[in-house]
Write a structure and sequence with these properties.
Blueprint lengths: L4 H10 L7 E4 L5 H7 L4 E5 L12 E4 L2 H11 L3 E2 L2 E2 L3 E4 L4 E12 L4 E7 L6 H7 L4 E6 L7 H10 L7 H13 L2 E12 L4 E3 L2 E5 L20 H8 L3 E4 L4 E5 L2 H13 L6 E4 L6 H12 L6 E8 L4 H14 L6 E7 L2 H11 L4 E3 L3 H14 L1
Parallel strand pairs: 14-16, 16-17, 17-18
Antiparallel strand pairs: 1-6, 2-3, 2-6, 4-5, 7-8, 7-10, 8-9, 10-11, 10-12, 13-15
Helix pairs in contact: 2-3, 5-6, 9-10, 10-11
C-alpha cells in the first residue's frame, strides 16, 4: 500500500527525521487561513499516489495567502496520470543549499535490502541514474544486521553525502523496519542555507501482508486513488496502472511481468499490469478489457496466455464472448500457447473480428502490439 506524501512525512517526523511544517486541506476556502498559519508564503503540493507531480503542474509556490487560495483552487481537481487531486498539502518553503536522494528498497532477487543514495537528488534523479550511474550508490543491507549508525556512515560516504546526513539514513531504516515498509524514499533530502537537514518529499510503500498492524492508514482500496485501479478493484481484478500505451492481459503474475519486459524490449511502454490468473472466463475477460479500453492512453492490447489448468480454447471462448459485450475500439493481439492452443487459435480465427490478430510467439505478439500502438 502506497502512502500519500503527507502520511510519509508524518512517519518521518515520528522517527526523528525533520520535515518542514505543513497542513493538509481539501478545499480552496481553507487555503488562505492555512497559509497564514504557516507564515504566508507556502508551497502547494497535490496529494496523489504517483510521481511527476511537479512536471504536471501539481507543485507550485504561492507568495502569500491570497495566492495560496488561488493556487489551491487550480490544483484541486487536476488529473495527474489518472489520479484525481482531492487534497493538497501546504508546506513552508525553505532555502536550499544542496539536494540529495536516499532510499531503502526490498531486493527480492538477492534476498536482502538495498540502500540507494546520491549527492544529486531532485526531479532529475532518474536521468542521473540513467546517464551517470556512477553518481548513484547502491549498497546491499543485510536484513539481520540492518543499518546501524556505523552502516549509515558507510552509506553516506559511498554516496558522497555530507556526514550529517548519516543520522537520517539510520532513522529512515527505522521507518522501514518498524512500519512494515517495502520502500522508503526521500527525494529530495536537503541541506538548507542555515545548515539544517530536512526531508522535503517522501514516498513510503507498506507491505500489504502487515495491514493488520497498519490499519491507521486506511483501506487498501483508496477511493481517492487511480480511477482505473479503483474500477478494477471493484471487479476483483489484479490491476496496476502504468505509464504506457500497450494494454496487457496475462494469466499468472510471472507471465505478466515477463510480458511487460518483452513489450518494453520492443520499444513500447506497457499501460498496465493485469493478471487474470486461472479465471479467463468470458466475464473476467470482459471486465479486464473494459478497464483497459477505458484508459485513453492505450493504443493497442496484448493478451498473452499460457494454457495450463485453464485451457486455451476456454480462454478463446472467453475472448469471443467478451467481445459480444465489450465494444473493441483498439487493436487486440492474442498469443495462445500450451493446453489446447491450436483449438483456441481456431476459435478466434472462426470469429474473425477485424481488430483481433494472433501470433504464435510472445516476442512476435509483443512486437506487433508495439507496432500497432506506434501507428495509432
Amino acid at each position: 500500500m502506497d502512502l500519500y506524501e503527507h502520511q510519509a512525512r508524518q512517519l518521518f517526523a515520528e522517527h526523528g527525521i525533520a520535515v518542514p511544517q505543513a497542513e493538509v486541506i481539501d478545499s480552496a476556502a481553507e487555503a488562505k487561513a492555512a497559509a497564514g498559519r504557516l507564515g504566508g508564503r507556502v508551497v502547494v503540493k497535490a496529494q496523489v499516489k504517483t510521481g511527476g507531480r511537479g512536471k504536471a503542474g501539481g507543485v507550485k509556490l504561492a507568495a502569500d495567502p491570497a495566492a495560496a487560495e488561488l493556487t489551491t483552487r487550480q490544483i484541486l481537481g487536476m488529473d495527474i496520470k489518472g489520479h484525481r487531486v482531492r487534497t493538497v498539502m501546504l508546506a513552508q518553503p525553505v532555502d536550499i543549499e544542496e539536494e540529495f536522494y536516499v532510499s531503502y528498497v526490498l531486493d527480492r532477487t538477492n534476498g536482502t535490502f538495498l540502500a540507494i543514495a546520491s549527492a544529486e537528488g531532485g526531479m532529475e534523479i532518474e536521468e542521473v541514474a540513467a546517464t551517470r550511474p556512477e553518481a548513484v550508490a547502491r549498497i546491499p543491507v543485510d536484513p539481520v544486521e540492518g543499518v546501524t549508525e556505523k552502516k549509515a556512515v558507510e552509506i553516506a560516504a559511498a554516496a558522497a553525502l555530507p556526514p550529517d546526513a548519516a543520522p537520517v539514513l539510520h532513522r529512515l531504516w527505522q521507518v522501514l523496519t518498524r512500519e512494515d515498509a517495502l520502500l522508503v524514499e526521500v527525494n529530495p533530502l536537503v541541506r538548507t542555507t542555515d545548515g539544517r537537514i530536512l526531508a522535503l518529499d517522501g514516498k513510503v510503500t507498506l507491505d500489504d501482508n502487515a495491514r493488520f498492524r497498519q490499519s491507521r492508514w486506511g483501506a487498501k482500496d483508496d477511493p481517492h486513488g487511480n480511477l482505473l485501479e479503483s474500477a478494477a478493484a471493484a471487479k476483483g481484478l489484479n490491476y496496476v496502472k502504468l505509464d504506457g500505451e500497450v494494454g496487457i492481459i496475462g494469466n499468472g503474475a510471472g507471465l505478466v511481468m515477463s510480458t511487460l519486459d518483452v513489450v518494453a524490449g520492443c520499444g513500447a511502454r506497457p499501460a498496465n499490469f493485469l493478471d487474470i490468473g486461472g479465471g479467463a472466463s468470458a466475464a473476467v475477460m470482459a471486465d479486464g478489457l473494459s478497464v483497459i479500453l477505458s484508459d485513453p492512453a492505450v493504443k493497442s492490447v496484448f493478451v498473452n496466455v499460457f494454457g495450463g489448468i485453464t485451457s486455451c480454447d476456454a480462454v478463446a471462448d472467453g475472448i469471443v464472448q467478451a467481445l459480444q459485450s465489450v465494444r473493441l475500439t483498439k487493436p487486440l493481439v492474442v498469443r495462445l500457447d500450451g493446453n489446447n492452443a491450436a483449438r483456441g487459435r481456431a476459435i478466434l480465427d472462426a470469429h474473425a473480428h477485424p481488430l483481433v490478430e494472433q501470433s504464435t510467439t510472445m516476442d512476435g505478439a509483443a512486437s506487433r502490439a508495439a507496432q500497432l500502438a506506434a501507428a495509432a
